[in-house]
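Appendix B, example 12.
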Amino acid sequence: MTTRVVVLGAGYAGAGAVSKLEAELGPDAELVWVSETDYHLVLHEAHRVIRDPGVRDKITIPVDDIKSRSTEFVHDSVEDIDTDDRVVELADGEDVDYDYLVVGIGSETATYGIDGMAEHPLTLKSLDDALEIHEQVKEAARDATREDPAQVVVGGAGLSGIQSAGEIAEFRDRHNAPIDVTLVEALPEIFPPGDSEIQGALRHRLEDADVNILTDDPITAATEDSLEFDERDSIDYDVFLWTGGVTGPSELAEVDIDAEHNRLQAESTLQTNDERVFAVGDCSMISQGTDEAAPPTAQAAWQAADVAAENVKRAMDGRPLETWTYDDQGTLVSVGETAIAHDVEMSGVSAPVRTFNSLPAKVLKKGAAARWIAKLTSWQRAMQAWDAL
């Protein structure tokens, strides 16, 4: 009897799991891949599209260039998962039955209950989002003057917020556009996960790029054209991009699996409390020990996807499951055409290299994205995308 394995999502988790499962599953298994997009987006490079939409083809990979012919692809959105009947309910097409399920459908941007935050800002979770940000920034600049520049505000100074602010500043400089760029962070310092060394390096690069930085004061409300704060005066904006954290996708809200904020809870084996369902990527909370979970990052999704796929095959065979421990291989952040590398593991070096920038950091950041593209397709394709990374 054929066993059907279904993978949901074409992000890092989903695409990575499909690639690995194709290598693991034998002829007695059927693999079905479901995604609302028919391409994989190299999401941690999506901010490049804000500056130049022309790079879109280099950071998107059609699913047909990733999967084998034997893998069935279903282009549809997930509505719900019925774990009792083992059925994935789809928005438009017929429901999909499964024997084993890998859930990797990403996340939504968290609003933290801030008034107006769900209605007014732009977000950066897809290619369409990046294209919309580009268009709104371009339109705002077209309507502005040197005496009355366009006000573009980025809320949230994590990885996505910092890189987006850098790209908007790069767009401004390349087009000599009348734009003021402001980066807002509720906590006392930008890049809250980092230590003071990388925070200082990133602040220096952002200030060099003429990005205004406002920290240590949370946004309390967003209107159609202004932001209110806990302490400082409100500020007006023409374009507002919100990048403040992640929450699980609404599609998982009613699924009968243990979850926190719609993120499925999984053991270090990537298995949920339903032994037929594995969760990976931003839609999951993967246990890493007492009160710890793996971070919702591309790097974590890349690593975990392989283990999830391996463990599906092990579960099918009745073998013990592997455990996964997140291996932090360092931080790579771009600010326009510059980049910062921090605690990066390098071949031939016994300890991670601390903070550095300039060309070596830029090459490392490009190399990380290129390795991922090569893993899914080929090094030839990765090198063709190099200038866009």
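The mean pLDDT is 95. DSSP finds eight helices and 25 strands in the chain.
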